[in-house]
Design a protein that fits this description.
The complex is a heterodimer of chains A (124) and B (109).
Chain A: E1 3-7, E2 10-12, E3 18-25, E4 34-39, E5 45-51, E6 59-61, E7 69-74, E8 79-84, E9 93-103, E10 106-114, E11 118-122
Parallel strand pairs in A: 2-11
Antiparallel strand pairs in A: 1-3, 3-8, 4-5, 4-9, 5-6, 7-8, 9-10, 9-11
Chain B: E1 4-7, E2 10-13, E3 19-25, E4 33-38, E5 45-49, E6 53-54, E7 62-67, E8 70-75, E9 85-90, E10 99-100, E11 104-108
Parallel strand pairs in B: 2-11
Antiparallel strand pairs in B: 1-3, 3-8, 4-5, 4-9, 5-6, 7-8, 9-10, 9-11
Chain lengths: 124, 109
């Protein structure tokens, strides 16, 4: 069964840092682009960042996190990461990792597998 | 940046009724649009992709239509498990960006 499992969330003070992890299983992780999506309490979905299959093909960020967050992956460990620094109250959210689907070898841009999320709370 | 506007924000219907959800894009996205369902305490799930294609395992009562800037998700006859929040998402800017609509909550009347 394909699965994504996020971890690393928690309570952090404004200006602090946190690293989220997303462990993948049940599929060939290295073949898929991956993304982070967040959802603030009671709000909708917000794209955070996307990384290509090997990382070297590109990493992309929402303007709201650019320069503060870094996405990375370790294909040998089937794990996606999100390093978050200079955290702000408005970064408080449930953070999901999600897999980008493929049409044979072409990424679809649609999110066909999601994890259950990990909660990040930024507060003093 | 393409903005997606969903309407209505809330749809109050009874089981067995037909639900019609709208998603409007600020500029054309062709048919590069998906719909997701999210139930309380759960992650979103892909339901429709490329505007009108059902994802694996999605019941036939769900259908998507539209192209360009106007899209519709229709649930032909609501089942109890269909009451949830639905989001549209466009991929025209991918990988540089993904955009979601604000969501439509389908609630039991």
């Amino acid at each position: 069964e394909m699965q994504l499992l996020e971890s690393g969330g928690g309570l952090v003070q404004p200006g602090g840092s946190l690293r989220l992890s997303c462990a993948a299983s049940g599929f060939t992780f290295s073949s898929y682009a991956m993304t982070w999506i967040r959802q603030a309490p009671g709000k909708g979905l917000e794209w955070v960042s996307t990384i290509s299959v090997n990382g070297g093909g590109g990493a992309y960020y929402a303007d709201s996190v650019k320069g503060r967050f870094t996405i990375s992956r370790d294909n040998s460990k089937d794990t996606l990461y999100l390093q978050m620094s200079s955290l702000r109250a408005e970064d408080t959210a449930l953070y999901y990792c999600a897999k980008i689907g493929l049409w044979t070898t072409v990424p679809t841009g649609y999110l066909d597998l999601w994890g259950r999320g990990t909660v990040v709370t930024v507060s003093s | 940046e393409i903005v997606l506007t969903q309407s209505p924000a809330t749809l109050s219907l009874s089981p067995g009724e037909r639900a019609t959800l709208s998603c409007r894009a600020s500029q054309s996205v062709s048919t590069s649009l998906a719909w997701y369902q999210q139930k309380p305490g759960q992650a979103p799930r892909l339901f429709i992709y490329d505007a009108s294609n059902r994802a694996a395992g999605i019941p036939a009562r769900f259908s998507g239509s539209g192209s360009g800037t106007d899209f519709t998700l229709t649930i032909s006859s609501l089942e109890p498990e269909d009451f949830a929040v639905y989001y549209c998402q466009q991929r025209t800017d991918w990988p540089q960006a993904l955009t979601f609509g604000g969501g439509t909550k389908v609630e039991i009347k």
